[in-house]
Amino acid sequence: AESGGTSKCAYGISSNQHPFISLLRSTPTTWDLVLDQCKELLNHKKPSVQENCLVVLQPVFYFLFCDPNYHIHFGPMRAVLFQILLQRSTDDEKWMKLLTDLVCWMRINQRSSFSE
């Protein structure tokens, strides 16, 4: 943790890969378990966990929404997390910035991505 109690994420998308990304890449069928863990962090009872979950989950969001290798099987996971991002972004500008960044980088030029 940095001074002031905020965290800086030590994980990336490919280098020093986030454990959730490693799991999704190695065993894509575990997406529902990873989603449950993401939701647990996002709805955690401890304020310190809730405050820092954006930083911890940011690489996972970028992987799910912006990976050039589009993964259709993660569609349900993306849909749930996108709704959570929309809700959070109405009250918090950090979440709005993440949502804006994701939308700018999302792959929307593939037919399969339009269904989401």
Describe the structure.
Helix 3 (47-66) packs parallel to helix 5 (93-105) and helix 4 runs antiparallel to helix 5 (93-105). The longest helix is centred in the middle third of the chain and has 20 residues, at 47-66. 62% of the residues lie in helices and 0% in strands. With 116 residues, the protein is mostly helical. The N and C termini lie far apart (35 Å). It is built from six helices and no strands. 16% of the residues are buried.
How would you sum up this structure in a few lines?
With 116 residues, this protein is mainly α. The protein is built from six helices and no strands.
- Biggest sheet, in brief? none
Percentage beta strand: under 5%
Query: Fraction of residues in helices?
Result: 55-70%
Q: How large, in whole angstroms, is the Cα Rg?
A: 14 Å
Compute the average pLDDT.
84
Number of strands: 0
Number of helices: 6
Cα shape: globular
Measured between the Cα atoms of the first and last residue, the distance is 35 Å
Structural class, by secondary structure, is: mainly alpha
